Automatic annotation (TrEMBL):
<feature type="domain" description="Protein kinase">
    <location>
        <begin position="28"/>
        <end position="287"/>
    </location>
</feature>
<keyword id="KW-0808">Transferase</keyword>
<keyword id="KW-0067">ATP-binding</keyword>
<dbReference type="Pfam" id="PF08668">
    <property type="entry name" value="HDOD"/>
</dbReference>
<dbReference type="Pfam" id="PF00069">
    <property type="entry name" value="Pkinase"/>
</dbReference>
<keyword id="KW-0547">Nucleotide-binding</keyword>
<keyword id="KW-0723">Serine/threonine-protein kinase</keyword>
<dbReference type="GO" id="GO:0004674">
    <property type="term" value="F:protein serine/threonine kinase activity"/>
</dbReference>
<protein>
    <recommendedName>
        <fullName>non-specific serine/threonine protein kinase</fullName>
        <ecNumber>2.7.11.1</ecNumber>
    </recommendedName>
</protein>
<keyword id="KW-0418">Kinase</keyword>
<dbReference type="GO" id="GO:0005524">
    <property type="term" value="F:ATP binding"/>
</dbReference>
<dbReference type="InterPro" id="IPR000719">
    <property type="entry name" value="Prot_kinase_dom"/>
</dbReference>
<dbReference type="InterPro" id="IPR008266">
    <property type="entry name" value="Tyr_kinase_AS"/>
</dbReference>
<dbReference type="InterPro" id="IPR013976">
    <property type="entry name" value="HDOD"/>
</dbReference>
<dbReference type="InterPro" id="IPR029016">
    <property type="entry name" value="GAF-like_dom_sf"/>
</dbReference>
<feature type="domain" description="HDOD">
    <location>
        <begin position="319"/>
        <end position="517"/>
    </location>
</feature>
<dbReference type="InterPro" id="IPR011009">
    <property type="entry name" value="Kinase-like_dom_sf"/>
</dbReference>
Amino acid sequence: MQSAAANGSGYKKDRTPAQGTQVKIGRFKILKVLGKGAQGVVYLAQDPNLGREVAIKTLDAYRNISLEKRERLIKEAKTVSKLKHPNVAPLYEAGSHGDRPYLVFEHIEGKPLKEILAKEKPLKVSRAVNLMIKILAGVGSAHKAGIIHKDLSPNNIMVEEDDTPRIMDFGISIMMNDAKSQSGQMAGTVNYMSPEHGVEGPLTPQADIFSLGVILFEMLTGRAAFSGQNAYAVLYQIAYETPPKPSSINSNVDDKLDRIVLKALEKAPENRYSSADDMKVDLEAWLKSDEDGHGLGGDPETNSAVEFILKRMRYKKDFPTFSSNVIEINKKASMAGNNMASAADLSRVILKDFSLTNKLLRLVNSAFYGQFAGKITTVSRAVVVLGFEEVRMAAASLMLFDHIQNKSQREDLKDASVKAFMSGMIAKEIGDSMQMKGVEEALVCAMLHNLGRHLAAFYLPDEYDEIKKRMIQKDLSEKHASKSILGVSFEELGMAVAKNWKFPDKIVQTLRTLPPGNVDRPKTPEEMLRNLANLSNEVCEAVSNSKGNDRKKILDGIARRYQKSVPLSTKKIEGLLHGAKDMIGKYANILGIDVQKSPFIKAIEDDGIATVVPAAEAVPGDLPAAPLAGAPLQEPSLSETQEQVSVLITGIQEITNAMLEEYKLNDMLFMVLETMYRGFGFQRVLFAVMNNTKTTMTARFGFGLDMDNLLKKFSFDVGAPNNPRDVFQLCVAQKKDIRIDDIKILHEKGKLPKWYIDAVLAPAFALYPVVVNNQCIGMFYMDREQPGVVIGGEHHNYIKTLRNQAVMAIRHSR
């Protein structure tokens, strides 16, 4: 263990005893030298009057100061000595020894935070936050007493064996303003200074807050927030550059903690926390969000159970598609904004899954989106009409339901999927009644709420059963039982996986269970989402675990608990259950639910709510017929021409209708491409455009296999019109349709360009030029995954019709 004073200000270790045994500073008997630094020497000494060991720091940098300043030092030291706080190393007294001032501190055994960081960087997130909360408490007490430290750093924060931090060197702050005013001098540890350290004038408490922000950043990331080859480079960064989010370095840090750190690091003092107490309150609130004190630090992500489940999801049969698709959809969402290319990206991901596409289109044409019934036959159109976020959330909810419902052999999990969807419907219905923006998010949040429990039951059935036994045998809560078996709670497990799936933080946070007691009015939309997710799931749990008068009492309690947040009467809650159950019945054929066999649905009916008989929902006549309820949705083969023709006809009709309205050119092209892709069953289809100089044709957007990579590589020189060298240049030069049923012969004759051989080399493909005013301004490309007729019979006419619609849209837009 090392002395606080010795290592609290960057002193080099020096355990050599002072020469002679009678050396004194004032009345204090020097025992040994603890350390040396730029400011002076730190000694371990004994106070003969009180018989205690103390640490004495001589301020060699301030020797020969005027008598007036020396007297002021001693006077102000008395003020500092009154500072009493468990996280502050007290200053006992100040004096002078010859021409050198000195300060006498409590001698504290511990390790400097700097040494701990060197060995353990980064610190565990919860530990870093707990340490900073205590440090802020000490600094806050000093600020209230009118004392500013001005030189906070990991060097002068000691951490005792019980992890209690003690702040050193408050007394030295007395001299800081004098040192700061000296020509060419700047007191303090450069890497932890605030921007205003370099500005003339006194420092405020916000300077300490900035330094604490830098320290917290380093504890969370293991890296300095500001660093450079010299002090001036560091000072420049502090003044003008913003450090990265801690979460970009340590994935165990979440967005909320990012915001706390970066607020403390604001360049302008007035934009930082107004006090150390305010920053402490935010960190405490962050910790409070997890009753076990782990915060949102993501430590569960390294848990073996979480790692096992994530690994199984990557490799288990039938599941990788779901996992990769939901991740890809969420990634696209983070890049969406108003960029229409992102709408194409979202459509492209959804279209990879035939079953998802089918269900989504049937859902958006149902009463669920009644105002659009009969109008939407392509995913691209759905994104345009409903909006990116609405379609994204609908797709996510369908994928989540499908995963739980269809991938499990456990009947309890299948029924859990019904309960999850019921929770989502209740949350959505409440959100609708409150005219909440982004109500689709409420549905997904409620469905995800018990994700961890579902994943454990599916992937870790033996451990899941043991958790249930332990809850009964040892009277443990589910949270503690799951932690005792898995080392992680179901809640933490679900959050870790949802984060891995790239759901945004505002959705991940809704997986957290609200603490007991009345729920306060939400201050943010994110808090409202969390409240709705918890409320709807508590209602469904009440249905599962109670009946009759007991259920009514529980529902009464839920109504009282959420009165401030979501004011609902018990009667209204029962009405929500009725409405949600009615909706489940309507969408049973879309979701594949057999409501007659669902114990959860029966539990609702036990209390007299009218039974809903599942009936196939009316689907607009211009859409392909839906499979019967519960029937598996099979991917079509090329021989299933009737369904393909239906998709083509309805797609062409929808494009025609859309062109009668106000539209954007990209919207029309997306719809044309998607109709081609779905209607003909191509492996890939894309649209390429000519550049302004009419020398190069480059892919713009498309659907199909590995499309992201293909869009980067599909670009070619159109060549001389009278001397085309390959099939692509020939298509542009002659403005004629080209269909290649087998590329072998073409390849042998050298009519395939090298860029195409390297990038694609599909067994069969077709090229359809887009000609406007006798100029080839674009091209549709489509291919098959095996040799054979690319487009035959009347299908060729459908392609030409779709191309003509694209040409009309282009002309209209000019």
